Amino acid sequence: MVDEFYNKLQKIRRYIHEHPEISEHEFETTAYLKRKLEELDVRVIDSGLKTGLIAEIGFGHPIIALRADIDALPIHERTGLDYASKSDGAMHACGHDLHQTSLLGAAELLKAREKELKGTLRLIFQPAEENFQGAHQVIAAGGLDDVAAIIGYHNNPHLKPGQIGLRSQAIMAGVEQFEVSITGISGHAARPDLGVDTILTITSIVNNLQSIISRTVSPFDSAVLSVTHIDAGTTWNVLPDTGFFEGTIRTFSPEIREKVLARFTAIVEQTAAQFGARAEIKWGNSPRVTYNDETLTPLIFENSKKFAEVLGVLPSTGGEDFAAYQEKVPGVFAFIGSNGTDGAPDWHHDDFLVKDEALPIAVNYYVENALYLLEYFGG
Fold first, then answer.
1. Model-level pTM?
2. Closest CA to 93 of 22, 172, 169
3. Are 16 and 97 in contact (CB under 8 A)?
4. Which partner from 101, 195, 302, 317 sits 20 to 30 angstroms from 111, CA to CA?
5. 3-class DSSP state of 278
């Protein structure tokens, strides 16, 4: 990557970082990306997406999709950077500014080689990853129609620029968001026998749920269940008639997910019934396991060694709606080093920092693997 190109991409990333927009509101970001692509003479598809966009380079089959997410988080930035967010209460605290800049950079390089391409490269600048809705919007808009495979990545602040982390199967967790509402019978705190104690029911359920991971999941596998919020009652001498608790479950395989969710439901309903209360469980619309294709991932692992240090990594307990694409077509999702210094802030922190030095590897990840997959599926 020559200095002139690198400096141009650095300026683009910093501009995007200065102008973050949260999920479902990426209007100016979308307009900016469209202008940049049109300057490159890359054809933008009329997809009907409210925010985000889809573009294509090349013609015919196979079609390989390259995905980058574009939304920011509702966080007040505290990095002190001279290009810090100018949008109060919004920040690229997850590095999506790097993601979309690197896909723009890849678009420029791939457009220059369009006549050589043996198929089509579909560029997906996806909105609304942070609320897990964007991938579904892209799929509904036809973004995966006729796609043979898709690749994407997320920056990783614990890897150094120049490093790529990859693994077959689960690389990010399946995420479940639950809210459990409990209904009992209100009464005086001095006569609990005349009511149905909602608080006792909730605390008993929460306590019983802690057995799921240790007694349902094999010690050779892993999962997480955390109750993070409990709300019941308004005063000291009244038993409330309702209350609720919420939290999250993280799993790394479809089989374990099904087992854990079934056990969760049974414990909630049976414990509530034990106390004479009623329970209602609501599940959030959150992503499944980001599950890397077991055939393509080793190939991308080896191909990426041409331009990066490639490491085997453990899966992250974070979630990614890239999983929705992988349920439709073979997909590979990587981690690309973006900081690597000791104590580097993690995703979603108000002092999260991406280093510009991550740009060359991120661009090459798209370019080299897109070309490789065109050959692989076109051969």
1. 0.93
2. 22
3. yes
4. 302
5. strand
379 pLDDT band (50/70/90 cuts)? confident
**DSSP one-letter code for 306:** T
Are 40 and 66 in contact by the 8 Å Cβ rule? The answer is no
From the CB of residue 208, how many other CB atoms can be counted at a distance below 10 Å? Answer: 15
CA separation for the pair 349, 338 (Å, rounded)? 15
Q: Could you read off the pLDDT of 171-214 as tens digits, one per residue? A: 999 999 999 999 999 999 999 999 999 999 999 999 999 999 99
Q: Are 247 and 212 in contact (CB under 8 A)?
A: no
Neighbours of 341 (CB within 10 A): 11
**Residues 6+ positions from 326 with CB-CB distance below 8 Å:** 150, 290, 291, 292, 293, 333
Token pair in block for residue 26: 């990426």
Q: Which two tokens stand for residue 189?
A: 């705190």
Indicate the helix (H) or strand (E) that contains 367.
helix 359-378
DSSP 220-280: TS-EEEEEEEEEE-SSSSEE-SEEEEEEEEEESSHHHHHHHHHHHHHHHHHHHHHTT-EEE
Residue type, 104: L
CA angle 118, 119, 123 (to 5 degrees): 130
